[in-house]
Amino acid sequence: MENIIVRIANEDDGKYSQEIVDEMASSAKARGTGIAKRTPEYVSGKMKEGKAVIALTESGQWVGFCYIECWGHEKFVANSGLIVSPEFRGRGVAKAIKFTAFRLSRKKFPSAKIFGLTTGLQVMKINHELGYSPVPFSELTDDDEFWKGCQSCVNFPTLTAKNRKNCLCTGMLYDPEWEQETGPKDWNKLYEKAKFAEKNVVVQFDEN
Ligand SMILES: CC(C)(COP(=O)(O)OP(=O)(O)OC[C@H]1O[C@@H](n2cnc3c(N)ncnc32)[C@H](O)[C@@H]1OP(=O)(O)O)[C@@H](O)C(=O)NCCC(=O)NCCS
Fold it and tell me: Ligand 1 site: residues with CB under 6 angstroms?
């Protein structure tokens, strides 16, 4: 089985942007959910800034993607737009991408709280493994720009009716302050537990 490489995206990966946004749109349609709309320019901009994670086969076929975004003057970081190409699902790629986006967020914005909104069981499981806790929306950023991203979701009227206090998504948060008690993460241990090697998923991350 061909290896899948998961790494921080760069400018040269811009050629995959159209395929990524097309898959985001068709997956959202299939799930019957709305999703914050992204353009290929937005996706390639994130790659250029070093704020995105990409998964590719060794021969260069696109497999998966996710990006990070700052809110509330860098007090918060969200990992958004997670997508795995249907033919590669169920192999642990989403987990490897989320682990990498989390490491990247901690490295680039060490004191920011990391959060996400999701209805997906797989994503909740991954977040839980990374140490996130479910929280009410009041614990997340109050940055209006972030919440504007929900406008294209089918459940936006519910969010508005609830004064942004809750909705169908679960809010999950990781506070780096918790590491004062737990210590920093042992990534080798986490990768081993996730069995990436057995699944032919290779995570490349340079901590320096
Ligand atoms: C959600 C998505 C990213 C998952 O990608 P994936 O690569 O198949 O996920 P993984 O293989 O890494 O699985 C992650 C975890 O979820 C579990 N899982 C996989 N499929 C599952 C399912 N159908 N139901 C419940 N759990 C499932 C896995 O077992 C794994 O947990 P484990 O390691 O404890 O066993 C992918 O299905 C996708 O792109 N969906 C469309 C877009 C989307 O929903 N994005 C998320 C928006 S929040």
Answer: 27, 82-84, 89-95, 118, 120-123, 125-126
